[in-house]
User: Which sequence fits this backbone?
């Protein structure tokens, strides 16, 4: 009996679509799902008359895979992944490859990679971005882990991934959890990008009293500019969409309480561990937390007062100001993400390639954007760039757009409109470009109460000095 090219466990939204993507590209697939009825339904419905076969025991599933076995896991991240791996382990051999395509935490992937070497099989962690549509039509893929696994899987992954200028949006990121780490940072940037767009929408809505359809037009126009990106495109589409029952814009019926699955928080926590400022990403996570405190906000809105937004100047000028500010802040959020990748690469000894990372984010993934071409250019010119902000293109935009950016932040503050991501981005920019910061006073305070020592401007660096303040 003919065996199957690839196995996949986990027929959720992503798993089903990835199977259909692989099948469309000429591969035969064996599938297994914990809940058997889901497997039956999939085979009867979306998997009908395709080179896909459902199995109902792990033993049978693994026996029907070609050697070396290539087994994708598309299950919810966490203990479920460990459970599935331990169910598979008795039935696999030393050449076989287990590939975790879910959003696993990179430290878990590190741990599972080490365990796979001890147990003598191959393990890969692949970050997959693009949501359900990406999984079906071609996602951006960030593989890490076993090098043998990558060499064996390369053709399949290239085939099923999205393409940008004919190049696959897929490349080997590095050992162990490197792929999942890059995906985590992708999601951190995604949080920042979404928050900045949401703040732009809210600022214009409040300052200019615009209706959703007018706001949609603004975002659609921005899609024709340097802001061109998937998130700007869908924002334009979201703002024109109407609820079929009430005829109202759907955006006005959606409760203003944001959820999250945790990848933004992981990025912020890891950045804190590594000592890298990623304030725009962190503020975006915090903004979701604050939004979720809806009941408290409702009460507070009756007690705490601020200015009412008011603007009587040129409307088109304010729209243009917002566009320029958004682009500058967006570039800062990329700069923070890439700065984190640089530090992580050194810390974990991964040799991450920033140009390659930017190039595989050009299509298939949620943060795909025209600006990524600028990032590729920047790293092509200098692969060891300290920070994207000092690349000539970034410097030019930040110089050019900063008056508008400062104006937007000041106007929002004056009018009581919360813009945490815009402000964090500006503070990052101003801090990063500052020759002098008030950290001398922090050091003095630390010395005063804790005798922690301080470096002197007139002595060797890394030499600690003390002073008696009283
Ligand atoms: P779904 O929630 O649609 O499906 C989850 C799958 O995990 C189901 O097949 C479920 O089986 C299986 N599963 C769970 Br939950 N616990 C299990 C366990 N202990 N043992 C075996 N199977 C288990 O998730 P999804 O949206 O397809 O996401 C899958 C992975 O891909 C996640 O890690 C997610 O973060 C990641 N991801 C999702 C997206 C997206 O846009 N949705 C994008 C990128 C990455 P069951 O049917 O028996 O419950």
Assistant:
């Amino acid at each position: 009996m003919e065996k199957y090219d690839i196995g996949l466990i986990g027929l959720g939204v992503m798993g089903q679509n990835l199977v259909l993507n692989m099948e469309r590209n000429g591969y035969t697939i064996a599938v297994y799902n914990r809940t058997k009825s889901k497997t039956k339904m999939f085979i009867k419905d979306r998997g009908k008359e395709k080179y896909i076969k459902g199995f109902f025991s792990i033993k049978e599933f693994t026996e029907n895979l070609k050697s070396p076995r290539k087994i994708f896991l598309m299950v919810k991240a966490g203990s479920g992944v460990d459970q599935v791996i331990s169910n598979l382990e008795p039935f696999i051999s030393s050449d076989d490859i287990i590939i975790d395509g879910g959003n696993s935490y990179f430290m878990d992937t590190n741990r599972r990679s080490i365990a796979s070497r001890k147990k003598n099989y191959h393990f890969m962690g692949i970050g997959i971005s693009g949501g359900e549509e990406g999984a079906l039509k071609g996602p951006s893929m960030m593989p890490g882990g076993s090098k043998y696994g990558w060499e064996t899987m390369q053709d399949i992954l290239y085939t099923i991934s999205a393409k940008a200028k004919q190049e696959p949006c897929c490349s080997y990121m590095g050992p162990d959890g490197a792929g999942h780490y890059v995906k985590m940072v992708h999601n951190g940037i995604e949080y920042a990008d979404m928050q900045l767009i949401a703040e732009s929408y809210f600022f214009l809505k409040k300052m200019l009293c615009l209706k959703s359809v007018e706001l949609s037009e603004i975002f659609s126009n921005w899609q024709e500019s340097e802001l061109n990106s998937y998130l700007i495109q869908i924002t334009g589409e979201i703002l024109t969409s109407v609820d079929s029952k009430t005829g109202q814009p759907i955006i006005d019926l959606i409760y203003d309480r944001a959820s999250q699955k945790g990848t933004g928080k992981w990025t912020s926590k890891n950045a804190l561990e590594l000592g890298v400022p990623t304030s725009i990403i962190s503020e975006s996570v915090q903004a979701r937390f604050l939004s979720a405190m809806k009941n408290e906000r409702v009460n507070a809105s009756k007690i705490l007062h601020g200015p009412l937004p008011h603007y009587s100047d040129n409307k088109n000028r304010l729209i243009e100001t917002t566009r320029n500010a958004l682009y500058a802040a967006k570039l800062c959020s990329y700069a923070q993400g890439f700065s984190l990748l640089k530090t992580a690469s050194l810390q974990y000894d991964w040799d991450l390639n920033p140009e390659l990372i930017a190039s595989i984010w050009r299509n298939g993934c949620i943060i795909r954007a025209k600006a990524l071409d600028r990032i590729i250019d920047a790293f092509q010119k200098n692969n060891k760039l300290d920070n994207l902000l000092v690349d000539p293109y970034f410097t030019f935009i930040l110089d050019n757009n900063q008056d508008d950016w400062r104006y937007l932040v000041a106007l929002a503050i004056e009018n009581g409109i919360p813009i945490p991501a815009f402000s964090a981005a500006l503070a990052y920019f101003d801090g990063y470009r500052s020759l002098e910061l008030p950290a001398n006073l922090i050091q003095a305070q630390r010395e005063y109460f804790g005798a922690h020592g301080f470096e002197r401007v007139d002595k060797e660096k890394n030499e600690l000095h003390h002073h008696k303040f009283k």
Notes: Residues 10-15, 33-35, 38, 74-77, 80, 83-84, 102-103, 128-129, 131-132 surround NBP (CB under 6 Å). The beta strands are 6-9, 29-32, 52-55, 70-73, 97-100, 122-129, 140-145, 163-164, 167-168.
